[in-house]
């Protein structure tokens, strides 16, 4: 674990260096600077509102654990929560400062803009990984127990819940609200500064896709390492423990080198997608090479094979996601728009459901091999392998919303079209990486949930369930229902919060007559506040559901029931998440494909039909789908903590 | 079992009496008679095409079983298949003859029309139950083994697969095809005889909602009785066995009395919904009273309680389904149409997903109580209880498409509007009963699958799975994926088959110039053929998937994996089926609510938005959703048969 501390501190220095490099760039003229500042303020205000709800909850929980178990668990919980919050806060601060700087760099050229936006993403990506391992190490030194790291993991899960679910509701409420009144009723173009919700929409990109995604993957990263360390220690002692630590270290080092390499190439790049892809693959290969050398050194080759499967499956899931959300599949989907919106919905739904097949088989095969080679430890280690290069893959992910924001600022500041062209080309790449990132997030959530389940089943000490024990099946039935119910709640939440938003935008347009003529500035802050309140209020019920269900099932059905619950929730949750993410991604790109001039182009009947698909896909892919990742991981870690409490640890 | 024979023969006589009463009615004027005959021919032609594919498959399977196990299993398989086919064929023959007779009776009044259409439904309902128990009894006498009844059940499952999946694809391909060209392109009203696909559409109602639904519930009925008999014999010997037989007998007797009662009330009824509801409740109560008396007589009161839970939950599931697909929920859904089709889709999706919550809890509670009272036998017996009054509940179900057909014939034959009004009011009731019937079908499929699973787990003899055995989880993961993939396949199938249909309708309208002016009759038969071929061709892949997956998983993961597979498939399948059925039903009724003049009425923006919802809901509720019922039951019964083979029975 000492390695985690050393490398973490080194990595922090690198991150600070990167951050300064970004901040020393010009944020442009008065207009772009001002816009960026409004977005910064909006994002911060969302985070602080969130913390106001979040920290009291976590403190009560910490006190509760202190009383019933001891102070160490409370400390672990608080470290997990605080470090994840810090990662999200810092990453978002830089991301919301990198946006205008990317816009301004775009006036100089594509390469410069790519460099700034990717640097911003890299700060987020590396911060998550770095604080993740630093927190782990500190927790370990404080608690002196691998098992109590579960509380650290639980803390991270809580942050993920708030950031992902709250952020997901926020971003879509703002987006849908802005679209309904702005585009449809008032006929304003996208990103028009006269739209009162336009800043809230830009804030939403950061809140959902930077902070939300970051907290989600922080949770996966920490959860899979925790599981692997515990299972590795149990089955292989020191040797197992150490190998996990080294794989994580190799991944972080490779990510840093990959990021430096990518930044070096960025300036002269004229194909951003290729540059980012080469950097990511480079880091993956480097991690594998280092792991291979290590395996040879300690003479334990299975480590290499399992990590290889993890990395490989992560890559393949990305490719399958890309296959279903771009190219031929999307063109075919766009074509169904010629028959009307209903056909777009049916075909897109079928497409998303179909995509569960290949991804499930892949995960299954990886897990079998990992299990055959290293038992339960292998299952967890494959998850660690998949997430080992999170440093760079999250950087690529977080780069997307920065580029998106940069485009919005260019539009709102009225910069020349050439700038917008450059930011648009960066944004287009960001859309693809976002779709792949979602696939990766689901895949890693599935493997993490499996690893946590392995941990739970080991802890629950249930060695002989009768298959005919109905509590297993009934637990699974309830578990399988929860992702559906959870999705219904989050979808309703988006709808209701968007309604609030629509009312506010209408009110402003009516009461401030100068808005539409551009003479008066709308009250952006008010819209941000409404979206924030709406999101936080409506995430309470889903949150309670996620945390209490394992407890209730344990009380009613016992540990076997909880085992069933986790199986059911993971199984139906993973399928639902894949379906929603890929249907949503495909609808988004089908609309874009038509907008490029195909099947009649913008404004045609087909375009309108695909817009319906895109609108349906928004809460699918950005709210409900991603929230399910959190649900299944949080339920798993809650069950583990529950077992440690029950066993009186 | 002797009781099954006696009562079955008595019931057959009653069915024949009912059938003659229908046939002696006038089928009306030349026009209505002719239309009815075309529908009869179309329905028959679909069935015979289906048999041509089906029987070779079943014979090969029978020969296979003969060789590896013995002739008894083949005989059981063939009885199961043949009796289910006979039930479907006979029921559909009468239903397609009752349609025009209902139309003609409607010229005399509502009561007469209700009487004929419900008689038609009753023939279907009673035939399914009667042949179900007769087949069971004969199988038992031939094989002299309760366990070999699984092959009888497998035969019934195969018919259900072909009837439900093939029929589901057929009915929606015809419906969608007729709507796209007829309504949208050629501007013809619903049920216009100039639309070449109009007969295929009417045939589809019978193929999907009469034969398909009938085969689905035949399978549930037989599967739950089989499971209860086996588990009852194992855990309670003769006593357990007998109580199942008596509950089934009480249910059939009560159904017959309820049907007679309803027919008596029908003529003077001016509220068809109420008349049907009273009849159904009457039968349920009578069954419970008889069961209570029997329980007191044999001094085993738990039998009564478990059956009571089954009946009660069946009823409640129906009510919950009604709650989600009518009234306030639907009005709120219709209102979202004012914001556009995307909002209708999102809200309807959330509605369907939300509905999984209450239904899952209900099933869970019923199963727990049943298990606490009678162990695994209780779980199976609750399923039998729920299906005990299938005779009348399926009658109410099958009445719907007859009324729907009657309306179509009235329209096509150009009868006076008053007649159409009467048939429309019958049809409206049918829509509600159809939605409740779907809820009932899913609920019973879930309980049957659970009962079959209990049987499987008992048979597989797995008394000690480690929860950490990854094959359980991986089996569940693959099982959970299958309903999604299966739904994708059936949705694609509808889309592709509808495309064939659209091409054919366009061709006819183009090549036969007299069609649109009404001077030349379109080639109805050709459309029926196209839909039939399209449906049968596209059900092969889903069918193979359903049958082979347990075998493949057994070979790869062993019996524990198959257990996981069944858990995963049932869990995610039940949720998906509930979601699709209720979203679809709500969308359908939201459209109707707007058509009644709300939120702008027919032709308004809101109406168009709700039409999109209805169109999306069609394959959800009539193809993919119901097909999942079959998938989970067929996988369960295949697994059981597999176990008997493996154990070398």
Summarize the SSE layout with pairings.
The structure is a homodimer of 649-residue chains.
Chain A: H1 2-23, H2 30-68, H3 71-106, H4 110-143, H5 149-185, H6 198-266, H7 272-298, H8 301-324, H9 327-336, H10 341-387, H11 390-412, H12 417-460, H13 470-511, H14 524-538, H15 540-595, H16 605-646
Site (Determinant of potassium dependence) (chains A, B): 434
Transmembrane segments (chains A, B): 6-23, 51-69, 75-95, 116-142, 148-165, 217-237, 243-264, 276-297, 303-324, 344-370, 376-396, 440-459, 471-494, 539-557, 563-582, 630-648
Cofactor (chains A, B): Mg(2+)
- Give the domain tally of chain A: 1
What is the chains' assembly state? homodimer
Look at the structure and give the mean pLDDT of chain A. 91
Q: Strand-residue fraction of chain A?
A: under 5%
Largest interface, per-chain counts? A-B, 77 and 77 residues
Report how far the terminal alpha carbons of chain A are from each other.
23 Å
> What is the number of helices of chain A?
16
* Content-based structural category of chain A: mainly alpha
> Sheet with the most strands of chain A?
none
C-alpha Rg of chain A (nearest Å):
23 Å
> Tell me, what's the shape of chain A?
globular
SSE string of chain A, helices as H and strands as E = HHHHHHHHHHHHHHHH
Poorly predicted tracts of residues of chain A: none
Name the helicity range of chain A.
over 70%
What is the number of E strands of chain A? 0
